[in-house]
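Retro notes
What went well: the complex prediction finally ran end to end.
Inputs used:
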Amino acid sequence: MNLPTSAKSHQPRTEQIILFRISGQTFAISSASVQEVRSVDNIAGMARDLPESHLRKVRHSIRRGDRTLYIVNAAIHFGLQPQPASLVFFLRRTRTALLIDGIDKMTTMTRLQALSLAFQGEERSWYRGLTALDQAVIPVINPEGFLSLEELTLLETAQFSADAHSLTSENPGAHVQ
Amino acid sequence: MTPSPETVLQSFVLLRLGERRFALPASQVAELVAPSRIFRFPHKSSALEGVVLRRGRMIAVCDIAEQLTGKKLDTRRFNLLATRKYGHQLDWIAIPVSGECELITVDMMPATANDSPHVDGWLSHGGEVIEVLRLSALTPGPAETLLPAPLHDFMEARS
């Protein structure tokens, strides 16, 4: 059945999201932004140390196809108390692999409210906005907000150094946390 | 009686922060509501406590008492929901207050260059001289030139 144009335009748009936890705090991310979910144990053997990384939140990288992704400790990124992570989100169209504590559930959001203009810190790049689910407010992650261009440049330098070092010595798989 | 040329007859909401009363133009005040749960999430805007959910709208909470009176509120009886205007955008903010609010219509004496940036003017009411607050100077917000582009890729609600 074809709905009249006006009826179609009033249908709320929805978006599939994943609710997940970092240090006890719940966040949401568009499921379309998550390319793959792996357990930390599963990637430990593939992760490489970045001893010269100047970013506390990034201590390891991982090779995926022809790209190097940086493993970001989400708790440190958000200034939360780090806890042992159990899962990694490989974020689509970014160079971020995100360490998280666990997934709560998948659900649908129908409304994304822009962050109030009162928020003027780094959170403006961290979040796409806020959504309300079951009378609770959940920040919706911006997948591109974990690593700035400047941070990526620093990490590439650290990676270059690590690669050079690995040519002269064996680099066993890192313990990711 | 004709108001003097320096004053403007307007409606104001008087709000109580501890022992002192302040005023806001009534046009900037949307609602006075009982305090509700503050939802906290990581951010770097230290003046903000989080957000409250009111009629589907998520509103940032900013306690301005410490800036104005030197100490945080002991008791929060209500949240005053006010709006700030940035260009064409209205941005809501929740201000905890410690007592009942009152609507009055009086002349406002505009602020002078000697007044603090947060003072928009002065009222005389009930034997008190009351500061009319300029919310944009007390609560964090963008410079007008730094306003973010609206979200285009998803249904989004701006106030």
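What we learned: The CA atoms of residues 39 and 68 of chain A lie 18 Å apart.
What to try next: split runs per interface for comparison.
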